[in-house]
Amino acid sequence: MTSIGIYGSLGRMGQAIAAVAPEMNAxxxxxxxxxxxxxxIAAGADVLIDFSAPQALEAHLAAARAAGKPIxxxxxxxxxxxxxxxxxxxAEIAVLQTGNTSLGIGLLQRLVRExxxxxxxxxxxxxxxxxxxxxxxAPSGTALMLGQAAAAGMGTTLAExxxxxxxxxxxxxxSGTIGLASLRxxxxxxxxxxxxxxxxxxxxxxxxxxxxxxxxxxAVRAALWLAGKPAGRxxxxxxxxx
Length: 242
Known about the structure:
single chain; about 240 residues; alpha/beta; six-stranded parallel β-sheet; five-stranded mixed β-sheet; about 35% helix
């Protein structure tokens, strides 16, 4: 039975992962939080899952590298510098980084990429996401993943196409852009909509998360898949067989 160490074990996702792991033939080796030593958890687990905070990522990656253990990074709100740290770690260990561990979102990414490619430049793309009032980053990591999928289908990058601020007199919508909007309120687990709009018609691809357990199951599935993999940077699309 594969043993899993959880960084951020007292958080919502950490607790959800611990709850679903046994039903997926995985054992929780232990957990670590802000004041705990990440090295001890890394030493006692076959694979690690990180759902903590961006500022803790460097220490968690260092512990995983020192122990030679694969790690699933589900923490969102990461900076370019933190993604660079993931790239460095992936030269030595297996790392799967994702903004969303839901298998449904993984499929939605594929659909968004294909739609953007097939529909072409006459279709505008807008992404709307809503989460609970306690979420601290915006746009969500999932919205950014969907934006990246759309940009790939368009033959560009999200950095070149994204528009996140439309306050004031912004003028008409520019062709070839991808709009991202964020809503926060209540206890919403996670809603994401990708809208493709052109003259006279509109297509909407929607995913609604009603239970945090879907992310936990996806994270455990990713961890079980990652265990034993050679060093490298992996994605949820690969877990799904893409």
